[in-house]
Amino acid sequence: MSIGKFLTDSIAVAENEFRQFRRNRSAILISLVVLPLFFTLSLGAGQGGAGTTFYPTAQIPIAWVDNDNSLASFRLYRDLATSKDFPDLIQGYTEQGALAQLGTKRIYAVIVVPEGFGQNLENGIQARLILYTDDSEPGLSDQIQTTLTSYVQFFDPNVDVQPHLSQVQQQAVAGVGIVLKGATFAGFDIGLTIVLAIVQIFSSFYEIAGGISREREEGTYARLLVSPISGGSIVLGKTGFDILLTIIRTFTVLGISIYGYGARPNTSLATLLALSLMVALISMGIGFVAAALKVGQRAVVIIEFFLILFLFAFSGLVIDNNLLVGTAQVVSNLLPFTYAFDALRRTILLGRPLLTLTFDLEYMIASILVLYALALTLLHFSRERLVT
After folding, report:
1. Angstrom distance (rounded) from CA 182 to CA 174
2. Angle between the 231-255 and 3-23 helix axes, to the nearest 10 degrees?
3. CA 10 to chain CA centroid, nearest Å
4. Structurally, what CATH architecture does the domain formed by 62-172 represent?
5. Separation CA 114–CA 166 (nearest Å)
6. Closest by CA position to 193, among listed 368, 9, 339, 16
7. Which of 52, 91, 239, 368 is the most buried if burial means most Cβ atoms within 10 Å?
């Protein structure tokens, strides 16, 4: 088959998908309106509602250890203690004593001012604060670090926050995400890393698996398989159409998050769009495999339930995947969405360039290729059974 005919057939499949989608008002509402709005607005409401000022570290007990005892360190303590984000700074601990309290739920972080802090600032040299955090609380380390960094940057641009992390954490997190002081819902950047992926996962999977299962029950999918159109053209056409919907959903979520909840992602629109498309392609690959196994619409709903289970249990949304052990750790390491959420956090929160996340990208791309190859293989056998 020539490339021209392959592409022409793919476009024909995509056009047919568009015609069916346009006639199905419920599909339009669910895919492009209900899911993006539901997840984004519900998470926003859970974090305080649009238009409110979010102080993410206001209720977190944090120890302040001043090993410098300089005028500069006193002024920094005063600025932090009188702010709305750090009103609960606790003095009186030694550095070792404070570190011993991490993990006991008495304090959740330790800010250490090292010796020479004030002198470095007087000489125009970069000065650093050392930050220890309780890494058993998911998302807490990033939130404290980003908020503290915003304050010290306003205090003096030569001050930097140096997180003291384990070797595993140092490999997983690099850089500092800066949240502007007093920004409305600056903390919704964390919510954006969740919503952007979840909306694409649920929508893309159901559009492929649910759409094909519906076509199979109506008899139109069997006629498509026995037509002269190749399996590759069928998959590419459906994928191309769903990519268009993915782009629309991405801009919907970003629009609500940025203009409604004040999210300020520390990365470019191109990076967000690229990651969103990769998440969608992984979900489509799973959808094609499920469809090739001839699952019905009820089974598609059940599979989506298991997707929810795996996402929240193993992908690092609730429990940091570095804290999982045994079989749970193995499942987390194999799940492609683990690397998708990791890439979203490291770009949106920490500003890492996308191309520096080599392993995350390689694993997601490999997952897409494996899923699509498996789907095409299963589709080939399905066509052979229909023809013979």
Report:
1. 24
2. 50
3. 31
4. 3-Layer(aba) Sandwich (3.40)
5. 19
6. 339
7. 239
